[in-house]
Amino acid sequence: MSTEPLIQVRGLSIRLGEFAVHDVDLEVRKGEYFVLLGPTGAGKTVLLECIAGLHRPNRGDIFVGGERVNDVPPEQRGLGYLPQDYALFPHLTVEQNIGFGLRLRRRPAAEIAARTAELAKLLGITHLLRRSPTRLSGGECQRVALARALAIGPKVLLLDEPLSALDEQTREALCAELRRIHGELATTTIHVSHNFEETLAVADRIGIIHQGRIRQVGTPDEVFRRPASEFVARFVRCDNIWEGQAFRSARGSTVTVGGVRFETSEAAEGHVLMTVRPEDVELSTPDGRVNEVVGRITRVVNKGAVVRVDVGAGVPVVALVGRRAFLQSGLQVGAQVAASFDPDQAHVLVNHGETSAL
What we know:
Blueprint (H helix, E strand, L loop, with lengths): L4 E12 L2 E11 L3 E5 L6 H9 L6 E6 L2 E2 L10 E4 L11 H5 L1 H5 L4 H15 L14 H14 L4 E5 L7 H18 L2 E6 L2 H7 L2 E6 L2 E6 L1 H6 L4 H6 L4 E9 L4 E5 L2 E5 L5 E7 L5 E3 L8 E10 L3 E7 L3 E7 H7 L6 E5 L6 E3 L9
Parallel strand pairs: 3-8, 3-9, 6-7, 7-8
Antiparallel strand pairs: 1-2, 1-4, 4-5, 9-10, 11-12, 11-14, 12-13, 14-20, 15-19, 16-17, 16-19, 17-18
Helix pairs in contact: 4-5
């Protein structure tokens, strides 16, 4: 993946009824799979549609490959767009849907047939080419719409909540498919989502958007483990978010939370928020390890492959434990347990004034 930006958004603002985007600056690199992640109504689709050319921003500029495209019609931007509802033409066959963009560009029939066959094979839908879209499942429709968007050989592929209408099993399969196709074609992709598992399965980098503003951009690990604000921490489900007072220490800093002292490898001073992901919290018998607090289990929630365990230990602590390990431990509500985490797993936010609720 190149470090060269292919998509650049500079100071973009637009209002469409109740949806608005404010002063967005964003770069998406050539060959990158970039996910715009945010809650419903955050402005994800509006921003994507501005890049696609479906809306003209009130202020700001959009560049594709270094060219300012504010005044360029959508069909001339070299972008492939897959809307949330797929928008397949019911009166055309799957084959005709895939080749639609190429026919608009008056490409030779042989080229259209070859490109359609190539993409149908890539996406595993060759057996569907003669069918009507009305006879397809949700997953099949998604593959056909993706093939149609890819057919024109776009500079950038824009995907608006492409998997939101699918069941969990189909969504997981298509996440793997999207990642495989991206690996083979290296098409720069911007994917709008509100689903964390989907995002982690496909993204090279993530942009968190909330109330029309980009709140943080980074790799999935950076965003999920080093959130830039309280909103991002809550949105990516850090769960353990504690307010405290930080003091410099030899290893980084000591944070006092409600009388409990925690060590972190990050240097900080003053009033802070400290975050620890629940999967980084270990439950065990007390043995005096670093960042250990002892308390009683107040709640247990079965989440399928993992179990959420809430511990009251002077501060509320949340841990995610593998289901098998939890069952073998014999722990239950009311049991005494030690909860601990490594100092390297703790993140400290010094400037955390943004506390907008979800």
